[in-house]
Design brief:
Elements lengths: L2 H11 L4 E4 L4 H4 L2 H4 L3 E4 L3 H14 L7 E3 L4 H15 L5 E2 L2 E2 L13 H4 L6 E4 L6 H13 L6 E6 L24 H13 L3 E5 L1 H6 L2 H11 L3 E3 L14 E4 L6 H9 L2 E5 L18 E6 L13 E4 L2 H15 L8 H23 L8 H11 L5 E5 L3 H9 L19 H12 L4 E7 H7 L3 H6 L5 E6 L14 H7 L3 E5 L5 H13 L4 E6 L13
Parallel strand pairs: 1-2, 1-3, 3-4, 4-7, 5-7, 6-7, 8-9, 8-11, 9-10, 11-12, 12-13, 14-15, 15-16, 16-18, 17-18
Length: 537
């Protein structure tokens, strides 16, 4: 067999179900992936392909590692953003871009994935020896699956694809988890038990570790409120009395209050990175406990008092066991006071925002769209995300999620248009779910053509476009009739101008996706960009 067929067979052995990207790459062009039982999906823009794989990885808690392929040269140049996003979100994928033939590899100005992708991948290699095919691809999967999961990349020069190799004897890679140091667990529990008001901050590591149950158990044991990061959103049910919601550029008032009231802040599965889109730990009179599976995050931006390194689920289980071993019939006597305070602050905050969330103004207030979406969809069957900019700020505090992995947020950076690929990946994995993405004019301009991919490949996502004919708060006018565009691409499109029709349109959109049709609902919205209400401060 040649290297192309060998790589396809290795992908199948690794459990890859989808090869997503763009020709020209022999894995697509020679039908090698399809013949190996892998579904090829060609996208309209390379980075959207990486975003789809990112969505599959994240909705499966990193269990499903899929493959990306693209053309040498322009394809690799055009793909950097998608791979970089997966790297930022710790999403495991294996990228297999083509490279220039070995005779041209070092000829300027040839774009080299080996050189240029090193900053946005966990491992980057070039396959130059056909006999090293098995070990080289294995290393990429091993890197992607273990430790802090991130993309592994192997560039395959064009001529290498057609070299002959011996029959394979490939053993697929496995995933491992690291447990915490018992002494570190004991020290963390000392601090948590001595605290008057511990608060937990849960990040995406809880999702990857599937640590949702021990997280809730620990919160209830300690009678401790729980906040999440934006990409940890849905790690803790937001209808739980101890929930504070998700931290972001816009966040619930109760979250901000309790983060600054805490005398011990326990971050689990998070990086504590300084960012406008995350939680800022108080700098005085508090103890910071940081638990992550990546030691490089500890003390990176904020000095920790205690660190616990390990898989989030293993850490949480160890801490729960330690707490239970020390305290019988645990009752710290603060549960009623804490939950009442959370509920009171939240109620006042929602009352203050009611005029916006329930606004009858036209053009439609974008918060009204988010409010109706929150009230309309079944939280047991939804997976949601919002794109960068105002869509994120509308959704993060006001779209409540109750099930693990029912929201795919993002961390420290993101590209406009990222959410379309995320939801396509989620829908491929969970066709029974309603996968909804809220975006604005800027985002649809970046990746909107891949709505056609959703129609062509039978991936019935629900796209909501908040069309205010401009780019966020910038004085940059945009225009377009996106509902008509959706119809022309083979999906269902609807333009809504009356706020009283918002909920009905969402219900119709949900039903259309259940019938197998991708949907784009275009809401003509006001230029409302306030992140806070200065009149209510």
């Amino acid at each position: 067999m040649n290297v192309t067929d060998a790589v396809a067979e290795i992908l199948a052995e690794e459990g890859v179900e989808h090869l997503i990207g763009f020709p020209s790459n022999p894995l697509f062009d020679d039908n090698a992936a399809e013949e190996a039982g892998i579904r090829p999906i060609v996208v309209r823009q390379e980075r959207t392909g990486a975003h789809i794989l990112d969505g599959i990885a994240r909705i499966t808690s990193g269990d499903q590692v899929e493959a990306f392929a693209c053309q040498h040269g322009p394809g690799t140049e055009n793909s950097v953003g998608g791979i970089a996003q997966a790297y930022a979100e710790s999403a495991p994928i294996v990228a297999l871009p083509a490279g220039y033939s070995r005779a041209k590899t070092n000829t300027d100005p040839k774009f080299s994935s080996l050189v240029n992708y090193q900053a946005v991948t966990k491992t980057t290699e070039q396959l130059t020896d056909p006999e090293a095919t098995e070990e080289t691809i294995r290393r990429a999967f091993q890197a992607a699956r273990n430790g802090r999961q991130r993309p592994g990349l192997v560039e395959i020069p064009k001529d290498v694809f057609y070299e002959e190799v011996d029959d394979l004897d490939y053993e697929p890679t496995t995933s491992t988890r690291s447990g915490p140091d018992p002494e570190a667990v004991s020290d963390a529990v000392d601090a948590l038990l001595d605290a008057d008001l511990p608060v937990i901050n849960a990040g995406q590591g809880v999702h990857y570790a599937k640590g949702w149950e021990p997280l809730q158990e620990l919160a209830e044991l300690l009678e401790a409120p729980v906040a999440t990061t934006l990409n940890g959103k849905s790690a803790f049910p937001e209808d739980h009395p101890l929930s504070l919601g998700a931290g972001s550029k816009s966040e619930p008032r109760q979250l901000n209050h309790f983060i600054h009231e805490a005398d011990v802040l326990f971050g689990i599965g998070c990086s504590f990175t300084k960012t406008a889109y995350g939680i800022t730990p108080p700098t005085e009179d508090n103890t910071l406990i940081h638990s992550t599976n990546d030691p490089g995050d500890v003390d990176k931006d904020y000095k920790s008092d205690l660190a616990v390194i390990g898989d989030a689920k293993l850490v949480l289980e160890a801490i729960v066991d330690e707490v239970r071993s020390r305290v019988d019939d645990t009752d710290f006597g603060r549960y009623d006071d804490v939950t009442t305070e959370i509920a009171t602050i939240e109620s006042e905050w929602l009352d203050d925002w009611a005029d916006v969330l329930e606004s009858d103004e036209t053009p439609i207030n974008p918060y009204r769209v988010v409010h109706e979406l929150n009230e309309t969809v079944d939280k047991d069957e939804v997976v949601a995300t919002a794109d960068a900019g105002n869509a994120r700020d509308f959704m993060a505090p006001f779209f409540e999620v109750t099930e693990p992995l029912s929201y795919l947020g993002w961390g420290k950076t993101t590209q406009l248009g990222y959410g379309l690929g995320l939801m396509m990946g989620a829908k491929l994995t969970h066709p029974e779910k309603v996968c909804v993405h809220v975006m604005g004019d800027g985002a649809i301009g970046m990746t909107g053509m891949d709505f056609e991919t959703a129609a062509r490949e039978d991936i019935p996502v629900l796209e909501i476009v908040l069309n205010n004919f401009e780019m966020a708060s910038y004085d940059t006018p945009f225009s377009g009739h996106y509902a008509d565009f959706a119809e022309s691409m083979g999906g269902y499109g609807e333009r809504v101008e009356d706020p009283d029709n918002v909920a009905d349109a969402i219900e119709r959109g949900v039903e259309k996706t259940k019938e197998g049709t991708p949907v784009l609902l275009e809401f003509l919205t006001a230029k409302y960009t306030e992140l806070s209400r200065p009149d209510l401060e």
